[in-house]
Amino acid sequence: MAHPSGWWCSWFALSARQGVVRGVYDYPRQGADRELKKAVEGYWKGRITAGTLRRTAAGLRRANWRRLAEAGLGEVPTGDFSYDDHVLDTSVMVGAIPARHRAAVERDALDGYFAMARGTQEVAPLEMTKWFDTNYHYLVPELGPDTVFAADSARRVAELTEALMLGHNARPVLVANLDDLATVGGLPGKRLVGGVVDGRNIWINDYENPLATLATLLGLAGQVDVSASCSLLHVPLDTAPEGDIDPQILRWLSLARQKTAEIVTLARGLTRGTDTIAAEIAANRAALAARANSPITRDPAVGARTAAVTAADAHRSRPYEERAAAQRARLGLPPLPTTTIGSFPQTPDLRAARADLRTGRTGTAGYEQRIETAIAEMIAFQEHAGLDVLVHGEPERSDTVQYFAERLTGYLATRHGWVQSYGTRYVRPPILAGDTARQVALALRDEVISLEAARSRMQAAGELATAGYPRAAGPGVYDIHSPRVPTTDEIADLLRKGLTAIPADRLWVNPDCGLKTRDWPETRASPENLVTAARTVRAEPPA
């Protein structure tokens, strides 16, 4: 019953309870104020010790267990906490450590772990890709004929023991392929997890349908656990801090803490009868109806414009080949044109400027002058580096998605709705609360696609060619998720691979994402190497 994007497997052998148990696979691990992010980055920068980092992590784990137990969950999960990524943790647990990282792991397990996640200047990290269709990025295990597995369950056992010693009824969770569990046989006598609370979206659950499903499951299996459909890593932590959102909309939202409460309510209704949660069902039904009928969610003007859209609106007046030729001529683009994705480092000075504007310490004119100065500096750097197509660097945007969402009707931006994207990178996805309007320029969207594919070493270029993709692509020639600066030779080798699948007039040379999370020293070095590599490969005779 678990959604595939969860891919968590719970080990049930330690619990002897019968009937209905309330539980979750895992819980957001960052802390209410992203304490984990700050501690890990502090360790990387040498501001705190490994011991301090471990103590911070232990405190966050215990706080999560306590909060889940106090919320009424019958079991708390263990083994779900991670400094970076739970798939990487599983690779380490089974000994699947790439040869290039083994010495570092043996020398210092924590630093070696982070080297696998981020890379170092000497060693490349593991490939990173999205977890099914979510925005969570996991580190892909490197498995091959020479992989020698060596299980080390010490950390998992230690965390389980810790939870038990604190008085919790604990359930270990592991990453596993649920398809492999389909051979367990029939359900009688089995313990079944009913993932009836949607762990992916941020809206309240409809109580009545899940209760009917759970009742059916209880008649089929020996024991039913009421749970979320997947990991709760995919939603923010709590609605409580969001004081800027309309209270009516807040009643429609269900984040990790609210989903936990929904699980507890449904389990109580299943075990004690729906009469015991009649008030909750009535409030839930009213909130669902209010959202469905609210003018916040429906804009007649948007509906009318949508109804007027025809098939002709999906087509441009001139074919791609003609548009591409005009673009190359207008911009004077060479083969293998170079650019960046859009953003440049969000420095402490830029963050301070936005904070000063919010608090009134700086007026609009003073703020805009600081932004214009930053833009001029970013353009000057790109001109010096020799990039073919320049960007303004987005200094006025803390987050591009949020920036546009704040300028569209129907979208809401949160202040504390952080969701882990990868490692210590957390984002605040905007909430689409209703019909949206306002034209936003997306002219390049169907002209050039850029991909977060640097760690896959141009595999995406071959896949695009196989699929017959006819337009320009920038598969990404260096990984912005790592502080590592790629060498000119490395980038040139990737371009040569890319050219076997995509011709030079359609292959763009760019990093695999924006540069806002990077520091300026590596940002200066990497695009300069990118330009040098592109010029080198341009000068080579066609293969």
Automatic annotation (TrEMBL):
In terms of InterPro entries, this protein maps to: Cbl-indep_Met_Synth_N, Met_Synth_C/arc, UROD/MetE-like_sf
What's the EC number here?
2.1.1.14
All residue ranges annotated as the Cobalamin-independent methionine synthase MetE N-terminal domain in the record = 25-175
Cofactors (names): Zn(2+)
Q: Which SUPFAM superfamilies match?
A: UROD/MetE-like
User: Which pathway does it take part in?
Assistant: Amino-acid biosynthesis; L-methionine biosynthesis via de novo pathway; L-methionine from L-homocysteine (MetE route): step 1/1
Task: Extract the PANTHER family matched here.
Answer: 5-METHYLTETRAHYDROPTEROYLTRIGLUTAMATE--HOMOCYSTEINE METHYLTRANSFERASE (PTHR30519)
Main function = Catalyzes the transfer of a methyl group from 5-methyltetrahydrofolate to homocysteine resulting in methionine formation.
What is the name of this protein?
A: 5-methyltetrahydropteroyltriglutamate--homocysteine S-methyltransferase
